[in-house]
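Appendix B, Record 12. Input sequence as logged:
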Amino acid sequence: METVYALATARGKAGVAVIRLSGPLAHAAVAALCGGLPAMRQAGLRQLVWQGEVLDDALVLLFAEGASFTGEAVAELQLHGSVAVVAAVLRALGDQPGLRMAGPGEFTWRALENGLLDIAQVEGLADLIEAETEAQRRQAQRVLSGAIGIRADGWRKRLIRAGALIEASIDFVEEDVPVDVRPEVVVLLDGLLVDLRNEVAGSHVAERVRDGFEVAIVGAPNVGKSTLLNVLAGREAAITSTLAGTTRDVIEVRMDLMGLPVTILDTAGLREAGDDVERIGISRGLERARAADLRVFLRDQHGESLGLEPRLGDIEVWAKGDLRANVSSEAVLSVSGLTGVGVEKLVERIVAELQDRVLSAGVTTRARHRAALNAAVDAMESAQAEICKGSGRIELAAADLWTAIRALDVLVGRLDVESFLDEIFASFCIGK
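Logged structural output:
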């Protein structure tokens, strides 16, 4: 491995900037700048000098090979966060033979190469860097801690047990083996299939936590959807008017609702369109509302037809609550974007509904994870079918079980990861 270096903190002026080095020459490169080195894992204040010029006073921190994030010898320089200081130190490192600038995610790549992270943990780290809300942080931290790998290892051990039983029955097919292993294998597979199907279902929710839930406000024209959106956003995100049909396109506002990432959608009023532009806006609004995780139906009268029916979990509220005698009740909530009446309760209901869904979230968070799990499920179902056809199909069942094991290996990156490594690491910053 070459020795690489990069700025690990954000570019621009700051109180402190951190430059990270990793590789066999990391400690020697720092020694060339400051002379004496501090003890491992003990920060020491040193003056950085290159070619007779003082560059900065920095805290120097060293990590030994095998005891660092990358698994290699690592050094960190904590500098004053001046653009000029950082540039000068990076130039000094670049002047030294055997050192080069790191590529995007290269430090994390090295941790993967050295077996300190599996591919699922790398994805968790990427998600942690991108996390904007508390729910996203917690979920990413769980993935980074190795939760997917731990669970996959448990599933893998049970599959290996089932495969070993099948293989034993094949090896001793000519022997008078008194025990038929097929019932035990079927029981093992039944339990595994329940676990994996539950995880597949939970992965959809976990993916929404990672990417953000979409909540669509739907209703008739001029019912107050855009005004309500502006109140929720705390700014004038949408144009409001007494004229019906003002909103012609879907307006999106991303926000943090009590730790949950949520994008609120303001859709065009649902009615017979007055012109082609409004017709397109209504069509787009209906499409986004149908795909949304949750819809808030803002109604102004009983029995109005919106061309969209509520689903389980959707929220129905009365619009223009400031004009209604009974502002709200436990069963039916009235809201007013104009005065703010009922808005806080509406937010509480949205959050409560989404939090209920989050409780069913799995540890897997991506479509790639789901594809690997579904491949394992398909292989196990095929194995069960072969077992049920009789002892003459037992070898085919064994092949299916090893296919399922390989699918779980793909989940954590033991096999066939090259196709998506570039995509994952493209999202990393240079210093990570």
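Residues 169 and 175 are 9 Å apart (CA to CA).
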